[in-house]
Amino acid sequence: MIDVHLQLSVSDRNRRFDLDIAFATDAPFVALYGPSGAGKSLTLQAMAGLLPVQAGHVKLNGRALLDTAAGINLAPEARGVGYLFQHYALFPHLSVRDNIAFGLTSWRKRLKSDDAARVDELIESFGLEAMARSKPATLSGGQQQRVALARALACNPQVLLLDEPFAALHPMLRQQLRDELRAVRERWGIPAVMITHDLDDVAALAHRAYIVDGGRVTREVDLIAGRGRELLDSTALRPEEQQRREFLKSQIA
Ligand SMILES: Nc1ncnc2c1ncn2[C@@H]1O[C@H](COP(=O)(O)OP(=O)(O)OP(=O)(O)O)[C@@H](O)[C@H]1O
């Protein structure tokens, strides 16, 4: 069960944005879908403990990662969260293997043998054996995404937070990597919260979608066994956007 309620404001000299977002679900794969500037990334960052929250809670299977009323606010590294950043944020000077192992090592310490075995298992599951010693810059976009996902999984997280996991990829690759992400998430049995602008990501992966706009959840859609797909299609996209999406789909099919 993921139970989230977050209230926070961010501002600079000219702008202010108020987020007041709540969702609670047992769905294993949750999508936060909405337009640019809706507050999706702020939500994910606050869940991970990367952003101060004024009031609210984040609970995972009853365990509070944050509960302002109870004075609980775990540090990011204590939250058990695997974060996939939109542009992957791989360390350019580290090899693929060291990138994946990064969260398991601390300065001057070597990997424990259990951790090394987990890193090797991830390298193998993602088909990265041949490039384990290479630097990220020498990898394709899809390979970099696999490294980032393996890194997010390395610390045995209780939840995966995925920020636009396919946005940086060529459309032809997306379908394949969606299938891989679905298989990997099921294999490791970890719930995921994904943010996306792409309805195809939602339709392909999510069991439950929350439509986010203006810092709030404006609608929730149950997608289990395909229910709600039509609803999502007809409510979340404007007619011209639907047309464009259908045209694009026909061009790349
Ligand atoms: N430090 C800040 N000061 C002022 N406004 C901010 C700050 N950080 C974010 N915002 C604003 O908050 C709003 C929500 O940002 P957020 O990054 O969560 O949007 P998003 O839904 O993830 O958008 P996108 O899909 O384009 O990534 C945006 O309008 C953004 O400009």
TrEMBL record:
Keyword Metal-binding belongs to the record: no
GO molecular function annotation: ATP binding
Record PROSITE patterns: ABC_TRANSPORTER_1, ABC_TRANSPORTER_2
Record-linked SUPFAM superfamilies: P-loop containing nucleoside triphosphate hydrolases
Gene3D superfamilies linked to this entry: P-loop containing nucleotide triphosphate hydrolases
Ribonucleoprotein among keywords: no
Superkingdom to which the source organism belongs: Bacteria
Keywords, ordered alphabetically: ATP-binding, Cell membrane, Membrane, Nucleotide-binding, Transport
All copies of domain ABC transporter, residue ranges: 1-239
InterPro entries noted in UniProt: AAA+_ATPase (IPR003593), ABC_SmlMolc_Importer (IPR050093), ABC_transporter-like_ATP-bd (IPR003439), ABC_transporter-like_CS (IPR017871), P-loop_NTPase (IPR027417)
Protein name: Molybdate transport system ATP-binding protein
Organism name: Roseateles asaccharophilus
